[in-house]
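To: structure subgroup
Subject: Chain for Friday's discussion

All,

I'm putting the inputs and outputs inline so they're searchable in the archive.
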Amino acid sequence: MSNEKKQTVLITGGNRGIGLAIGRRFGQEGYRVVILDLPAEPGAAAAALTTDTGGAYYCCDITRKARVDEVIADVLGTFGFVDVLVNNAGVLKWTSFIDTTEEEFDLQFNVNVKGIYFVSQPIVRSMIARGRGNIINMGSMGGKDGAAIQTVYCASKAAVIQLTKVMAKELGPHNIRVNSLCPGIIQTDIGNDAPMSADSWLVKTPLGRLGDPEDVAGVAYFLASDDAKYMTGQAINVTGGMMTF
């Protein structure tokens, strides 16, 4: 695929974990990969991915709207468009309801919800002008069925699922599809930092294993593909069977 004809995927939080795996999958499918994340410089894997696909890496705090607007303007000015937006960046604080601080509350809602909202806005304007687009928001099974010591995280992910549904209804007439992914326990830094043991999760998983980032990446690519062209407003579980609604 020539550079001119390449489609572009923009992934927030794509420097590692699920975001990096999603970037790799899209890169394998011929996409130009653009990553937004917090480190001033990308990790080696993210740097290689963006270079090899003709994309770019941007240091961007997605909770700062002014910085987001600046970065997205540069992305659109450089590449002309974003075909697929993957709002993957997220943060989880393992804190009980009574012990959660205001700072922990604000951080999780700012990254998990506000970040999606204001990264999406300028890209959606561009998608409307082109008459097409695809957005994938990262929810969680916790957004469907809350869990102890994840109070704010679960509330924020429930907001992501609802935001996805409303975006899908508003943007469908512009040929823009919006879906969310709801992973279960995935073997990333967030999942591995859980205060409970892996065995306690395994007994709840019909498939008998925890998820890998690649398990989520495959579903993300499916949602962006024409195979899912009649799907929008959905919250798709990737939980090994732990969540069935």
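Points worth raising on Friday:
The beta strands are 8-12, 32-37, 56-59, 84-87, 133-138, 176-183, 235-238.
DSSP finds eight helices and seven strands in the chain.

D.
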